[in-house]
Amino acid sequence: MDFRDLPKTGSYRLENMRVPACLTGSGEGLVPLSLTIAGGRISDAPADAVLDMKGAMVFPAFTDMHTHLDKGHISPRAPNPDGTFPGALATVGADRVANWSASDVRARMDFALRCAFAHGTARIRTHLDSLPPQDEISFPVFREMRAEWAGRIELQASCLVAIDRMELDGRFQRTAQIVAESGAVLGCVAYPMPGIEAQLDGFLNTAGRLGLDADFHVDETGDPAADALRSIAEAVMRTGFGGHVTVGHCCSLAVQEEAVALSTLDKVAKAGLHVVSLPMCNMYLQDRVAGRTPRWRGVTMVQEMKARGIPVAFASDNTRDAFYAYGDLDMLEVMREATRIAHLDHGADDWVRAFTTTPDAACRFASPGLTPGAPADMVITRARSWSELFSRPQADRIVIRSGRQIDRTLPDYAELDALMETA
């Protein structure tokens, strides 16, 4: 029997696998692991069948904590005209006004979730553009999709409103109420602006009053003067905000003077912020100038963050839209590219947590891992080492959910053709 032919019924034991030691709580590098699966869970009971997995690497199902399911797959009808950040903002804004009905958002969101599920993701946080009236359109769709996907992908949402368009004494309070009613997270795009301190304080006070966590897009730029991250850390400490605060992107840190950037990171650590880096999207957008080779990668200072005890995760971000023209919500691809872009392959050997347990903690997802009694949700690759894992896309991986191997057939892009003709 080929080790890819897993039993469709009964219990079974997978022997001779390898798992990152940091996910087991002991040791370093890769360590041996055998698992028995019965009744959809990892079990200590005897198994009906035993399979030799020949050293295959295994991971718990992945968590993708920063995505944009509402934007996904609009590129065919709304391509970025020049690959720049301003080009992306203008293009998506126009497409949103013209095309983002409930049926349009729902169809593209479902397509994206089927991709993520086939690749082995079990938990997703998505940002939803929430400039009125889009909040009244997208959040009901999100709630429907969360119910439909329950048991396959656990969904969480965060609103997305630019800090200078956030009317704290006006319409934003309705958006915040929609977020609270949806069991979601209060989100904001933060960048330097006059009065940023008052805006951040008001935002955090609103989140605190409603019992919500906070999630910021921050300093997604190559401008070294962009320091909203420092302002967020100071605001969290100033207001005493007690919820989880996530900050994404933080690109400008990498082009600031070292002393300035490290001083900001000290405040981020003191404020207890969670960071999520989006290396594929940032490498696509940042330092893009026509006819000129980019001079930097766009990735933030993840190594220095980790050294300060700041929790760092990585995620997909956008997929096939004006902010990132590629991607498929494949966390193994994110892990491979993050490793290459941010040089995660030397030094600490526990970076795999940045794709599993660290985002779980930031988002308050349960993180059962690969322990007895946990749901049997895992990804198994043919790779037997990190070198083998990162050298190929692992297109032949096995995804096990609730103890059974799923059909990993990806949806056909042709399903979206009719939507792309609406523009």
* Whole-number mean pLDDT: 96
Shape: globular
Name of the CATH architecture of the largest domain: Alpha-Beta Barrel
The portion of residues forming beta strands comes to 15-25%
For the biggest β-sheet, the strand order reads: 3-2-1-4-13-14-15
CATH superfamily of the largest domain: Metal-dependent hydrolases
The structural class is alpha/beta
Rg computed from alpha carbons, rounded to a whole number of angstroms:
21 Å
- Quick one: how many beta strands? 15
CATH topology of the largest domain: TIM Barrel
Count, helices: 13
The CATH class name of the largest domain reads: Alpha Beta
- Strand/helix succession: EEEEEHHEHEHEHEHEHEHHEHHEHEEH
Approximate helicity band: 25-40%
**How many discrete domains?**
2
Major beta sheet summary: 7 strands, mixed
Distance between the termini: 50 Å
Low-confidence stretches: none
Protein name: Cytosine deaminase
Keywords: Hydrolase, Plasmid
EC number: 3.5.4.1
InterPro entries: Amidohydro_3 (IPR013108), Metal-dep_hydrolase_composite (IPR011059), Metal_Hydrolase (IPR032466), Metallo-hydrolase_Enzymes (IPR052349)
Can you describe this structure?
The protein has about 425 residues and is of the alpha/beta class. It folds into two domains: about 10-60 and about 370-405, Urease, subunit C, domain 1; about 60-345, Alpha-Beta Barrel (TIM Barrel). It is built from 13 helices and 15 strands. The chain has helices at about 85-100, 100-120, 135-150, 170-180, 195-210, 230-240, 260-270, 280-285, 300-305, 330-340, 355-365, 385-390, 415-420, and strands spanning about 10-20, 30-40, 40-45, 50-60, 60-65, 120-130, 155-160, 185-190, 215-220, 245-250, 275, 310-315, 380, 400, 405. The strands form three sheets. A seven-stranded mixed β-sheet has the order 3-2-1-4-13-14-15, with no helix packed on it. The chain has a five-stranded parallel β-sheet with strand order 8-9-10-11-12, sandwiched between helices. Strands 5-6-7 form a three-stranded parallel β-sheet, sandwiched between helices. A hairpin with a 2-residue loop joins strand 14 and strand 15 (about 405). Helix 2 runs parallel beside helix 3 (about 135-150), helix 5 crosses helix 6 and helix 6 (about 230-240) runs parallel beside helix 7 (about 260-270). The model has no long low-confidence stretch (mean pLDDT about 95). It comes from Paroceanicella profunda. It holds the Pfam family Amidohydro_3. Its EC number is 3.5.4.1. This is Cytosine deaminase. It is an enzyme of class 3 (hydrolase).
